[in-house]
Amino acid sequence: MISSPLRIAVLLSGSGRTLQNLTDLRATGELNIEIRTVVASRPNLGGTERAAAARLDHHVVDRRAFADVHEFSDGVFSIVDRAGVDLICMAGWLSLLIIPDRYAGRIMNIHPSLLPSFGGRGM
Q1: Which of 70, 83, 99, 118 is deepest in the core (most CB within 10 A)?
Q2: Integer Cα distance of 105 and 107 in angstroms
Q3: Which residues form the catalytic set?
């Protein structure tokens, strides 16, 4: 029995390697997902270029353009809401977000390090 693909949003702040892995696994049929939208936390990221190359819906919500974390979070989640996703994948997302109750239990953070203790240079 084939189930419907899991509809996801990918939030990223960098090169988009995880996004690439997700699109590759989707293409081979190893991962039954539909990437409904990609949100980048700032302009000129490799992840945005990967989203464009894969012809995925993608947006930049530049955190510096908002007065505070609440407005920034509203901007991000308004895009996610319109995409109608089942799950949000924070794929190297490096910006603070206020997560609405409606997404409780529907977000996974797959950043490879423990922040802020092991964020690397500049963190």
Answers
A1: 83
A2: 6
A3: 111
Residue 34 CB contacts under 8 Å (≥ 6 apart), including other chains: 5, 6, 7, 8, 26
In sequence order, what are the beta bridge partners of 7? 34
Residues in the chain, total: 123
For 46-83, b where at least 16 C-beta lie within 10 A, e where not — what string?
ebbebbeebebebbebebeeeeeeeebbebbbebbeeb
Name the pLDDT band for 3 (thresholds 50, 70, 90): confident
Q: Output the CA–CA distances (angstroms, integers) from residue 35 to 7, 85, 104, 114, in the order listed.
A: 6, 9, 19, 25
The encoded tokens of residue 4 equal 């419907």
Local confidence band at 23 (pLDDT 50, 70, 90 cut-offs): very high
